[in-house]
Amino acid sequence: MAIITVENLHKTYGTHVAVDDVSFSVDEGEIFGIVGRNGAGKTTTVECVAGLRTPTSGRVTVDADLKQQVGVQLQDCTLPDKIRVGEALALYASFYSRPADWRALLEETGLDPRTAFAKLSGGQRQRLSIALALVGNPRIAILDELTTGLDPQARRDTWESIARMRERGVTVLLISHFMEEIERLCDRVLVVSAGRALAIDTPAGLVVRVSGGQRISFRTSASVDALKDLPDVTSVSRDGDEVVVTGTDDVLTAVVNTLPASQLSALRMERTTLDDAFLALTGHPAS
Amino acid sequence: MTTIIRTPGLGRLAAVETRLFLREPLAVFFAIGLPAALLLILGSAIPGFRDPVPELGGLRVVDAQLPGMMVLLSVGTLALSTLPTALVVYRERGVLRRMSTTPVRPAALLAVQLAINAAVAVTATALTLALGHLVLDVPFPRAFLWFTVVVVLGAVAMFAIGLLLAAVSPNSRVVQGVGAAALFPLLFFAGMWLPRELMPDPLRRFSDFTPTGAFGQGLVDTLGGHAPSALHLGVMAGWALVAAAFAVRSFRWQ
């Protein structure tokens, strides 16, 4: 049952087209990811969903009260320096007609309620931000680039907080450009590039759809251009002598039949990743 | 306005914002401490300030000129520095934007900030009158109703100018710089350093039409027991209307 439906969304700023005909729907209880590089139109899309921007054309339907039942965590939104963690949670809880128990949320953050916002680390601020997005007891949480700029441990802690949202039955709309984050958390993912929707699938489905699931890497000084025309090959990327090729189950055979074995070294087969899928779809790495 | 008053959590928002204001020792000092201290120090230390002056109709400087300027200093600092800086910082740091995703509109935060700064201005004014009365033996304003009218009208004009400043400033550095750059000439026109009685005629005439010249003279007049001039009331009302209209038209939430 779709709780968010976006149909043919367009958003232009002057002559700049930020979102160009994007459609998707999010089911209740789902963690839905939107990936794309900076400037791909991810933030504009979710801001239209949250009611913070008006679409130029197209339709956004959200089966929830936008103010009361949608919790939003935006990029670059901070709090006053001197507000304390406990004060902020109690204050934001008081804005809603049926708030969550802010003391329980405070406990989950593991933060000292007396700490001033200015004294929190990046990871602690993000944990508070997630708690603030949940303090209204929302049906939908919209989280924009939550883990950008965090160290690996803080990123993992944040992922745990998001995973707990699924247990609460909260529908999550998550923007990210970390493929590991998407792979770990999201049920389905929308890939956007230059304002256009390129694919919607499960993370595993995207990997299979794009590459057939095989990825091989090797070193060579020879030209690999001939590989690009082979039917079993979906993508070829090269960094100096390091070459990565993705494709169907027969991609390995295709490579060794095309390039002389004497010119190949350090040949390895690996499982393809969402990073490869993103690269094949958009023609660019995600980050 | 009624939707702001019925905002859920408005009381808690006001309480939290008040605590945040009081956690900034410098803001409290400049708005309340400095005017009160200047009143006491200048009023006690400069002997001439406590002698009747014929040019002032037999009043002492501490009776009307000095407390009038201290009220003006307090309102001017709050309106041109404290309030607009707080609002621009809130906009710049996404505090208003975060609030716009909740059931509470960011206009409620603006209203609360305005109310807190107005309350601090009233506190500073009351403190100036009380200290002047207790320490310097200054009588309470005999034209008390007129005094209240001038304080309210002058504060509305100054806060409207402060809101306009917040509306057009792109960032907090600009708002602080422009606020300070505007405050000092405005205090000069009010007679902070050169009482208006001693200004050359053309300068005083010009000062009549500045918001602080009208406000300052209105304070000095009513503290001295006289009614304010219609010209000064009109100048304050005009600045209030024009600045508020431009502020409302140009204010951005993000």
Automatic annotation (TrEMBL), chain A:
Residues 4-219 form the ABC transporter domain. It is a peripheral membrane protein. The keyword Chaperone does not apply. SMART domains: AAA. Signal peptide: none annotated. InterPro entries: AAA+_ATPase (IPR003593), ABC_transporter-like_ATP-bd (IPR003439), ABC_transporter-like_CS (IPR017871), ABC_transporter_ATP-binding (IPR050763), P-loop_NTPase (IPR027417). Keywords: Antibiotic resistance, ATP-binding, Nucleotide-binding, Transport. Its main location: membrane. Pfam families: ABC_tran (PF00005). GO terms for molecular function: ATP binding; ATP hydrolysis activity. GO terms for biological process: response to antibiotic. The keyword ATP-binding applies. It comes from the Bacteria. One of its GO terms (cellular component) is plasma membrane. It is found in: Cell membrane. This is Multidrug ABC transporter ATP-binding protein. It comes from Planotetraspora thailandica.
Automatic annotation (TrEMBL), chain B:
GO terms for cellular component: ATP-binding cassette (ABC) transporter complex. It is a multi-pass membrane protein. Keywords: Antibiotic resistance, Cell membrane, Membrane, Transmembrane, Transmembrane helix, Transport. One of its GO terms (molecular function) is ABC-type transporter activity. It comes from the Bacteria. It is found in: Cell membrane; Membrane. PROSITE patterns: ABC_TM2. The chain crosses the membrane at residues 26-49, 69-90, 110-131, 143-167, 174-194, 229-248. One of its GO terms (biological process) is response to antibiotic. Residues 26-254 form the ABC transmembrane type-2 domain. Belongs to the ABC-2 integral membrane protein family. This is Transport permease protein. It comes from Planotetraspora thailandica.
